[in-house]
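S.,

Sequence below, as promised.
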Amino acid sequence: MKSRTSCSEMSLFRRCLARYWPLWLGMTAVLVFYNILPLANMLSDPSRPQAASGDLGPVQLFVYGRAATGAIFALLFGLIAAMAVFEHTYSAKLTGLFASLPVKRSKLFGQHWLAGAVMLLSTGVFIALVMLAVEAVYGAADLQSALTWCAVWSLESLTFYGLAAFCVMLTGHVLVIPALYLLLNFAGSALNILLGGLVTSYSYGVMGGENGLYWLHTLSPVVRLMTECGQGFGQNGEAAGFIGWGWVIGYFIVGMIFTALALWLFLRRQNERAQETTAFGVLRPILKYIVTIFFGLGFPFLVLYFLGGFSFYGSGVEGARFFPLHLILSLVGAVIGYFLSEMIIRKSFRAFSAKGWLKALIAGVVCCAVVALFRFDAFGIARHIPAVDDVEVLQVSGGSQRFVLRDPKQIEAAEALQRELFARRGEAEGQSYDGGGAFLQYSYQLKDGRNLMRGYHLPRGPLLDLAQETLGGDTLGKMRIELTPPVPMDKTHVSGGEISYAKGGWLELTGAEALAFYNEAILPDVREGNYDEMHLGYDEQWQMEHCYQVSINLAITADDGVSGLMLQYQPTLDTVHTNAWLTAHGIPLVLEKDGVG
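The prediction came back faster than expected:
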């Protein structure tokens, strides 16, 4: 005769819901506080446009924004649900109890997984219904955004639930589960930060975010979901629905794959592994060396940050003088990480042995080798300069001026300077910025749509003189200041301007006045090369003797009526046409050395 339990596996499902209803209620309450109360507060604002206008844009902006940031709650609740329903895998008492039930392991897993999924999905449905009801009370009901929020929450919560279930099956210890879960979800972003820090610390010219490692964030679902999803907008700024479905669905598929892996592991794990740090022996060395490598790469960042005086995002200048210390700290960090992970795995402080010391030192040497590879640009990241034929536009910025290059010959000449700066990087590396100097930036817009930036710190001396001679003279064939985007200068595109001058003087220009100023003064100076000299160094002496205490700003709008820029100029002794216009309009020309402002 079959037992009552064996005939009704659903009793396991009902048991989970009955046992963990406080967690269920708590998750719902948190989402109410995060979504419903702020939504009601926004809709009750007296300044909100009347519902009769039919403008649901603010509601969609709020709901889609919460759908994107809600990934952090899906991350948290997925872990809580998995640890609750699979409690029997890391409790020696419950493991024995459930192992004695006449229920197949696959069904045991399925009923518990289903209970957690129901808690997560039903919470999302409830919040969506309440959200819609609150909107209806204020005459701003939007079914589409409510359904979208519910769908996004459902897919994201199941994604992280699957990842959490996988982590639960890897270990038998309640404290190790969150550690594995955080490692699985943030290892990609952490690796991007560590390796990116090495690139921008030791690769001369490479700026933060331009190191080619951003793709590593894809390995951290919550980071990608929060940055790539949200409210979309049309060309005219109107709301265009939720964006990021590809990421949401893609990660959901990944979550289901990890759910299947969790089942596979559950069918093969030994019940005796409950309360052990690892449920599978093969996992021990993998986790041990992952922790060791992360400590070896991250420990120097932490120590040098607190010591001060070292910028890990200094475009490869200051890092060189810290390189020996960085190697020592990497070795120490790897040793700390190795024995710390060993103690956690063994659940004992008796983790030190001669063989362990040898392995820890070998891991430390590997970490030092990784640092050295970036220090000497073994991957060619800093040496990479786009081919001239691949460049659409190159902007070269230095001091207070920016030049836009489209002519291949000019781009080639500018890149020749770039290569020379890299070849002589030893003259800049290891020097502190306290001694002054300049910062030269190259901004590439490539023909394939990508953008690339390089930034070179030039200390006072030969490097700065070389760049000044190249960019301040005729080497590039008289670079011209240009508009970006290039728009015709007529009355429909100049929206206005302003000029501030010594002793608090101020002159407001209409669009027509700004247009006349540009055509009659600035443009002739640009054409004659009066604005062409680029002074890279923040040379106070030169500025004091050559620059007038006048700031010119013109607002330029492109054809689409949206994009544009501010043209900013400071007249010098050479800008004869601009100076004549300013004098004619009653603006005093006072040199910086003589002015008081």
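The first strand starts at residue 230 and ends at 233.

Coffee later?
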